[in-house]
Amino acid sequence: MQAFTTLTGLVAPLDRANVDTDAIIPKQFLKSIHRTGFGPNLFDEWRYLDHGEPGQDCTTRPLNPDFVLNQPRYQRAQILLARRNFGCGSSREHAPWALLDHGFRAIIAPSFADIFYNNCFKNGILPIVLKEETVDTLFLAVETTPGYRLTIDLETQTLTIPTGKYFTFSIDASRKHRLLNGLDDIGQTLLKANDIIAYENRRKQKTPWLFANSI
Questions:
Q1: Are 139 and 81 in contact (CB under 8 A)?
Q2: Residue 205: count of CB within 10 angstroms of its CB
Q3: Residue 117, domain extent
């Protein structure tokens, strides 16, 4: 998993509350268990004018000109600004996979659905919770200022706007450590590899019959 330390990136505003995971990545694209390749189908039903199916060449599909991510000014945005209860609905981990594959490394919202919030940390995305009035202020700034960028510093837990003013955000210490060091669940477990091996060796000595047929 890619570590997250600091990020200065373009912001894209998604001015919709209660965006669920089926809107983030529709159900027909969930057959793959690979973490990549979902970016072109992010927000598929809002992004395109036709019905999307797996295997389609998205470069030939008709785009919805009114959808925010199709506007030239928000191309290559790395920070998504959203409304309350972002990521509600089912627990599919494909939702953060699609956001990450599209290029988003951070999402700012007044609130997130719990499972989606947890899945973001497991996949290298930083979800930031700010007060609703602060999010309102950011929406106004982003929509009225082309090329609006924010700087996020995870170590200091600050989000800085172009004027130099900054906001602080909270994050669990364990999740912060894992993001700073690029540790997903497997990476976190591998930190204990020596302890795991030592434990297994002790088990083999105490209960050798359990390992009689092991290779």
A1: yes
A2: 8
A3: 4-181
